[in-house]
Amino acid sequence: MLKQFSLLACFCLAKASLAADLDIIIPEFPEDHAIQFDTYPQQDTSTFIKGSELLANTESLIRQSLKPKVILIIDDLGDNYRLAKRIVDLPAKINLAFLPNTPFAKKLAQQGYQKGHDIMLHFPMEATTRPDLLGKGALTHQHSKEQAEQLFQANLEQIPHVVGFNNHMGSLMTQSADHMRWVMDYAARRNLFFVDSRTIASSVAIDQALQQGVPSLGRDVFLDPVSDSITSEQQLMRALSIADKKGQVVVIGHPYRSTIELLERELPFIAQHYQLVTVSEYWQSNQKAIN
Length: 291
Description:
Structural class: alpha/beta
């Protein structure tokens, strides 16, 4: 209970401090904007009611659009059904990244899609260390362009409703301009978005994605670089601070019990102060803003 209070208290103080520093002015609407219908007893009031509702909806939309965006991705799903089901059932729309060749990926992806989450492929890619953690379906330096595309397609076919992907590991592959160009060329043809997990600072994945016209984002914060509750709480506060300063943050977490407990406790509260959005919603809103 003490940890919960401390996290929420820090959150409120950080938000209040930010608003004061930035001198944010939120448009206000008069509380008495509703029309007094008893003044017009013989008049059809239906149009006035609609107008009042429209004004209220406009106020809500403006306030919502001013909230910083939090894009939360949970990786490594598909192996453990019970833990992943708790993530699927979280009270907010998030992004679920499934590993190919896992026993529960298809079933959980279907459930996640029905809940409104974005479904992603967590594409295994060769790293500089720990090949034992890659699993099946991994892209390696030995793959040719044709082989890379065939592998990508085979991985996608295992998981329904995929709208985008990010890299699982990949500290070696995301440095390879050739392999990333091949992957992004295929992603563009499949109309997928990409999120760089940024497992290494020298990744060229986003550069290649942009060259191929693939909508792309990069990870800002790992929610749980180690699986303990104190670290996760600290990382969550760091993520919210970045969102406050930049207007958005991309957070990647994993199906650890400590992470799930933190999200089950905090997401309803965070949703009151931030926009929890899927990656596809993020790009849709950006496109509307451009048009």
